[in-house]
Fold these 2 entries.
Entry 1:
Amino acid sequence: MTVDVGRVRLKTLVMAASGTFGYGTEVPLCDRRLLGGMVSKGIFLEPRGGTPPPRIVETPSGMLNAIGLQGPGVEALIRDYAPQWATWDFPVLVNVNGETVEEYGELACRLDGVPGVAGLEINISCPNVREGGMFFGNNASSAARVTEAVRRRTRLPVWVKLTPAVTDIAEIALACEEAGADALSAVNTFVGMSFDLRSRQPRLAFRTGGLSGPAIRPLAVYLAHRAAKAVSIPVVGVGGIASAADAMEFLLAGCKAVQVGTATFVDPNAIGKIAEGLRQYDSGRLDPNARSGPSI
Amino acid sequence: MWVLGFRAAPIAQAVRAGQFVNLLLRPGPLLRRPFSVYRTDGDVIEIVLRAVGEGTRGLLDLREGEVVSALGPLGRRFQLDAAMRRVTLLSGGLGVAPMPMAAREARALGLGITWVHGARTRAELCSEADGHDIRWATDDGSAGVLGSALDAVPSSDPGHVLACGPNRMLAAVAARWPDAQVAIETYMACGTGVCLGCAVPRRSGVYDRACTEGPVYRAGSIRWEDLPAELHYAVTA
């Protein structure tokens, strides 16, 4: 059951979302036969240490995270991971990040033609970095500038991961399409905050974090739907998917495929179970009321 | 403090002292909850816990025969060898969790064991102990030495120190015995190395993962000042 998202051919409809599957080498319990593709942990040109702990806090039906895009930098990614990706039977996209438009362009150039890299997902929506990140994603002209800068420097398929923290996601989606994006991922985490009543301080050291998990699902379905209606390029839905029924909602909203993130933290084989569930839905055997997978 | 046992043969057979399991309660909060394995008995693993939030309350409400999902054994274990001759197992509060297994492994190696355990009050002490020399401490002096578990360590050579407890206590352990092995508790999501949520700041300047490179570390390798002094659990989910 393959699906083409622009020029990227996914093995199934269900991908692993950036930041929830490492570099693809860390989730041995995921059934890779059912993994449609994956997006790597977000990468910068240079290594980054990330934010101090506490980095995560659980909230009702969700979690806040502020990891701060900890990572080894693009050269280590190319050296240590891309050669393994080249041997896998599902596509790996690299989630690219910069503090300036030029850095995004530089990363695109560096990753162009690297065997094992099937495409780029531009992250203009990370709420957990001080420079760049979400700030490029929250208006149409800067979103378009980053997309263009990447488009000009690579022949790879270019996806843009949108932030939900905007007044009109349709306008940003359209700006990315016009700037040359091949597809959109909708949406990244929602900025959130939680206070500890004893210390009277935010529970995350970074103070704010990105909210993910089932708590955001209806919000994400709506925004993915808005984006999909606005553009003619494919939209990949992401946000709180924990079961095949959840994934179906995004497909019904107009998405071409889905990404699963936080659910993998709960069940390392969440993706396998969701992909299997979608297969049953296709053949009319999925109970539309079966909200939850076997363990989520 | 309560001990819960789960039949989990593959984990019980593989787990070593200091390793943990990540438990999922359904219905229950979204994320799993990590616990050191307290003891094994045949096919059964035991954890020790107190109701500190939604997850632990739900686990303590389980009835015999109910099923939870357990991932494990996870993380790196305490490293013991016969050349150590004597170990001191030093724990504060729920930090007693990995110590019974450590004691069992130390006995198998023929090591002398000093068991030192502290809590706020006599009522909060873990009553189970395993060692040739057993010492207690309480913050209010209601049992054992008045003070922290560190105050109850005999003045003679403690041998190799293994410690687990609140970060404040482990920081004091690091100052006194930098070569001690400490098992650190952090907030955690996946437990398998992908979320990077359980960051532990190392003296080398990097953050690594309690679930994968830890939870057992050389005490002197941690930047204690960059870890929260205590973890609060008040998740309503």
Entry 2:
Amino acid sequence: MDEGDGGLPARLVWRVERGTQQGDMLGSLMHALALHPALHAIAARHERCTVLGLRDDVSVISPVDELAAVLRSASELGAQVDVELAPAKCAAWSPTPRAPPSDLPTQWGTDGLTYSGIPVGGDEFVTAEVDKMAAAQDKVVRAVASLQPDAAQAQLLLLRMCTFPLTTYTLRCLPPAAAKVLAAQVDATVRRELLRLLGAETDRRETRKTLLSRAALPVRMGGLGLGDRSVIVPAAHIASWMATLRAADVSAPALHELARALSAALAVPAARALAGGAARPATADAAGGTSPAEWRGASGWPGSAATTGAAAPSPLAPPLAAAPVGTELPASLAA
Amino acid sequence: MWGPLLPRLQACLDACAANATFYTGGSFGASPFESVDPQSTDPLLSLPPPLDTANVPAAGLPRAVEGVPGTCRALMAAPTRLTQRQLAEAAHVAAARALLAPLSMSARARWAACCGHDSDVWPNRLPCGGPHGGAMTGSEMKAAVRLWVGVSPVPQASDRECRCGQLADQLGFHWLGGCSHSVPLRTFRHTAVLHRVATVLRADSRWTGVMADPPLPAGAQAPALRPDLRATRVSSGAPVLGDVSVVASTAAAHVSRTACSLRVPGAARVREAEKVGKYTPHLPAGDPPHTFTPLVWEACGRVGPATGSFLSSALWEENHREALAGLLAHVFLILWRWNARMVLSGVANSFRMGRVPLAAPPLVAHLLD
């Protein structure tokens, strides 16, 4: 406490010995300012690498044989700004099948890695992680459901404001086919709980259908904002890419090239085949009486490889798989 | 070079466009989701006719995108970047229109009464304790939410006969507006709204002499008009009289007016005009002159336009946002709390019709002879 005129405190100072204060709105910015020189130094020392930082999460895209050196550099250069690298929390993966590098025995993941909460890897890995996410979501929803019966107001708020935002972030980052699976599972979980919460399990089917259809709309449209994840999956994916590609400070050359390609592209020929079932059922009655729940099966996502033709790529393939054929793909390292 | 990425983005875009498209093979006339009452210079005296929605530009709901671009190239070339919120709203509006199309006019009115700019206030209210805390009991909340989304307030609802002898609809709107047996509960609701408005005005330093249920002036006889609220502006010394009313926007007289308007609460506007016509000619003379303001809400929470204007001006300046938002949110909650209580009470005090067809005469008709 510094004393000003008259012995009154002119300002209060809370001295933080290390890191930033939890809850400080400027904490992230200060952390980024402190870490920035270290990231620049790593990038300068390893010119073949792309270094990305998001708060205290740092990722490096580099050739596999250079990853161990990057780790050593990160440890050395981080220490100069009082940042301690935690090797046990680092993970590395390459989309090209290969044996684990001998100098990265503990960090190497054969199937993929989880970066900022999002699984990046092969189909099986992403599918397994999505199942885990859905199970975690189910656990949260069940916890909300276990509140006392008189807490319906709090339960609805928790469902809408705590459980769904997590999913929204995930839907923006996952490959669309995986996002669709996750959204369907989350919607099913929330709808089940909503019916139980409102005592609608014993209602007639039409009543339940009306309730769930209306509940999927935003509150300001007379809904509850619950159970609409399946509908917003394509919007989340498109908006996420547009936010990335139209950002003013896109630094990665690959993203610049992708933005240029998209700006020049007309309709992609394969898109219609991939989007099999994109349109809603033409057999919908004239009154448009089909509910969104019934559109889920035809919401326009790439089907399995068996249904989209042999030439169609796997819908779970991550964007990294878009590199030229025949070249070894870079590895990712996330810390 | 990009492998499956470009087709995948196009597939996503196609799915967005499909979700944002309202498929219909026929015409259903103007949709409340695309209608708004024409603007009037005097909202109290120039009431629009019901269902006057032809050729009115789309408005009312949060502005969704005017269609989703068909190609990624168009997305990249758009002057402003489309957000997830905009794309999702386009899908929601299309879904809402599809749900709305087959509904009856009364069902549309019930739905429209729950839409609008501030309609998300009460479901988002935190359940804190205290007289103004915003907490609702579990049974009230369940009934209110079920009413909100357009299903019966109690599970396994059936047609019922009210103690007043009328057939009650399964949604229970009979008890919100037309039932003589729910008058006491409607009075409680009215009183709760009145005292909340008076409390907020009392807390504002620009008002003085705020009195709810003021006594009749000396010498006035019982049938004299008796406004619910009296207050004086400190700045001008002008007395303001107000009268609170909660109008059932889904009552038969207001159904068409409510169904055609999402943004403008037509039922509240009509009631405001009635109140002004009733009280204004009888305002006491004086200097400065007395003024009258209606304080009208619809039962589902929408505030009348003149009421909203008065409250905005009354609570202007530094406390405007907090005080006004707090008042509207709390009145919203009061209304839905009492809506739930009235409907639950009505259900509890009514008779199950069983398999008796709706066209049958009331079971207690012989008692009325």
